[in-house]
Amino acid sequence: MKKLINKTDDVLRESLLGFEAAHSDLVTVNLAPRFVARRQRKDPGKPVLISGGGAGHEPLHAGFVGHGMLDAACPGEVFTSPTPDQMMATAGAVDGGGGVLFIVKNYAGDLMNFEMAAEMIDGAETIVTNDDVAVEDSTYTQGRRGVAGTVIVEKIVGAASEAGADLASCKKLGERVNATTGSMGVALTSGTVPAAGRPTFDIGESEMEMGVGIHGEPGRRRVALASADEIAAEMVGAIAEAKALKSGEPCLLLLNGMGGTPLLELYLMFHAAKRECEARGLRIERSLVGNYCTSLDMAGCSITLTRLDDELVRLWDAPVHTAALRWGN
Amino acid sequence: MKKLINKTDDVLRESLLGFEAAHSDLVTVNLAPRFVARRQRKDPGKPVLISGGGAGHEPLHAGFVGHGMLDAACPGEVFTSPTPDQMMATAGAVDGGGGVLFIVKNYAGDLMNFEMAAEMIDGAETIVTNDDVAVEDSTYTQGRRGVAGTVIVEKIVGAASEAGADLASCKKLGERVNATTGSMGVALTSGTVPAAGRPTFDIGESEMEMGVGIHGEPGRRRVALASADEIAAEMVGAIAEAKALKSGEPCLLLLNGMGGTPLLELYLMFHAAKRECEARGLRIERSLVGNYCTSLDMAGCSITLTRLDDELVRLWDAPVHTAALRWGN
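Structure tokens for the assembled complex are given below, as produced in the milestone run.
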């Protein structure tokens, strides 16, 4: 294992301290229990949006804490769910009386713990994201996995809550965005969990895992590495089919890096994906390219498409000021 | 070679088209000759800042084209200098009469071609960056290499030119920032040039190249992989010595990823580097963490320190709106 770390047990703590030091204008980090919260707290009465999950997917979720997006994030150890205690402490620290909305990627451990925490907090609600169209049921999931589409849910619901939407409206909106969002990923290499010390899965020198999960879960098939255009065509096709995207529909296209693939390739894949979308008549009205929902040092990418309407465009365009996403004022 | 590409000959063209499509609000891309320019041109009379060099270091330089930073960038093929013709066409497209300032990383090919172009353009000036303190003379360089400190030069000079500084002042400022900036890098793996099809250099499973260049040029020594703290101590020490940084001095700390290392590790390295700086009495008053000057899919990072003063802080803080760096309005 080749990593820029000290002791494997200290990876998350030291990384969070670095994150806090680099973004001290935006966030504060609490180490015990572990959570990242906005430095400037929200207006009382605003529902608070909290996400979390295992570390190793950075900038997800701590990189999205700030104005216009999350109020807090609670990271577990690498690829390990945070605990209900941790989630309750996070909610207690940031809730100003407007209620708590958890945004949870669909993994059994995350779901169980967030639901346990939600039951203990009066009126708390949960949005479960399950945008990965590659497979039904997986190593850690019943149903579909929650992957990079979670970023889009967090951005859009964050904008709504900032604009005054109440808890019930935010939950309904988040579920609507999730339902109209589909993703699919591909891995060229496996990431390595620091505590494991070796790659999560073995993969041949000329193979790719099509439909991979963000913890290295198996996808649809292990096949010979294909061209960028072929990969884009298969992934866009799978998403368009699963989400019944039709010619003429306006979409948001997120080309997400898995952590180990450089920007030179991500922009090339974006070009391939956008052309494939346009060949299907989809209108790419908004887009985002970069590393947003990663899998440690995995080489690969995912494509996410969200069907847009005027409301979603307006909320997507609303100002956001976080470590990993920033536009508007 | 595992890359998300089509044909190796098309990598740069397709990546630039993806970049343009993703950032069409900010830039336009010209393919023949190849350059990236601001969509909204500067005021007539503003000196234009143009940088360039081989591709493979993204987001350098195209990702820094926009308000408050570069006016244009001209990318060569991967790790290959752009041509004088290309540079002259770029200058011709963006110069509004305020003169042309080339910002050039110190590599023999880049230097020769940019100087040739500058000689052909009336009044054009050149700033050469050479912030890499690791070695004197290298595979492609006489003297010290220009690396991630170039980003800081581009940001600060960009702010000055936006605020009305003339060409001579911009050049003088850039040379001052370069002189007070030092960098050093470390590689855990080699990047792979698409057209070469294999890693630039071989490195053992438990080795690192300390002081590596951004094209995989040899550094100071090939040694066993050390801890993040040890790596940070050696790199910060080397920079502090080369730049005579003294206890109590205010600095900017850039922790730059080489392309294949995930954010989890970059923030951890930032934590290590910042502590090492503080142990030496340096005051880290500004900072930046992320992939800004990369080497394809190389795993590793570099540390850059710039000695600050009130003028440099003000210019660093000035608004910037580019694909890769954005703050202020």
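DSSP finds eight helices and 14 strands in chain A. Residues 181-318 of chain A form a domain with the Hypothetical Protein Tm841; Chain: A;domain 3 fold (CATH 3.30.1180.20). Further analysis is deferred to the final report.
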